[in-house]
């Protein structure tokens, strides 16, 4: 495990703390000083083909609140290559019921406070902060440019956009930008009563965009700003926020590292622990012209049929666990072998090895007693004789 000499410093209550050195390459070495050993174990166990690919991925997190801050924390601990943080709000003491932020950060901008903490946790992650409201005309163009050129490789786009905002206007801004740039993104949200939430994976042209199935505020032509009542705020639970953030990051990792099944829509109802799943098809008459354009592009693509032969070969190419630490061997079944073993079970009590005993005694068969016949043309007299012989055998026992 190689590393350079860069060290991260973090100040808490005027006390300077030193973070770990930056690491150039992830190592699977199982030692207490390796921050990636548990993550690289996914590769050895066959879950992920090459975990270190995560260092080549760039993710934009829009909204660093109850869900967004935990999402950024998880991605940083997983070793994401680059993280772009978007928010214009400040940390407040009212946010302390949630995870991540601490009281000493009150008054700081959320993106700056988050960046300092995340850099201290994992200095290998490149973090850029964007402290502005993406819904204004000028800032939308800045947002568009940031995700268009925010990839790990300079000049490339981000690999994924994660929406962790709490209002319809910001979600629509993200939807418009991702449709225009043809970028994949996840939408997430938690209900106002804090006991339900969801995530939605949006692939422009293939699945419904956020404007294809408009929410109630659009269907009823409601001004979202009038929904908030004076002196009343939305409820917030760190548990619900953490669960939704976990679902969001888990599906992000599955998409970026190509394992498991990514959910198109995954909901959560905390009252009954219900996790509904569904898929949403795009609306051909969507109001977003870029969404309609992406639909036409997707329909024009040739459909790729899965190659069953290649899949079967790849599955049998190598064992799931190459190291057989316990010497376990799989033996194919043999009917003759099984029948011979069954016959051995009728061993006489005197032949049982010391320390073992039979669960029950095998029946003693009288060789002189007439045996039952499988023939169909057995007479009644013969059957009576056979039953009489069986009775005599039972009486002897």
From TrEMBL:
GO molecular function terms attached to this record: ATP binding; metal ion binding; UFM1 activating enzyme activity
One matching Pfam family: ThiF
PROSITE patterns tied to this protein: D_2_HYDROXYACID_DH_1 (PS00065)
Domain THIF-type NAD/FAD binding fold: 36-286
InterPro entries to which the protein is assigned, alphabetical: D-isomer_DH_CS1 (IPR029752), ThiF/MoeB/HesA (IPR045886), ThiF_NAD_FAD-bd (IPR000594), Ubiquitin-activating_enz (IPR035985)
Key words of the record: ATP-binding, Metal-binding, Nucleotide-binding, Ubl conjugation pathway, Zinc
GO cellular component: cytosol
PANTHER family for the chain: UBIQUITIN-ACTIVATING ENZYME E1, UBIQUITIN-LIKE MODIFIER-ACTIVATING ENZYME 5
Protein's UniProt name: Ubiquitin-like modifier-activating enzyme 5
Source organism of this protein record: Anopheles farauti
Taxonomic classification: Eukaryota, Metazoa, Ecdysozoa, Arthropoda, Hexapoda
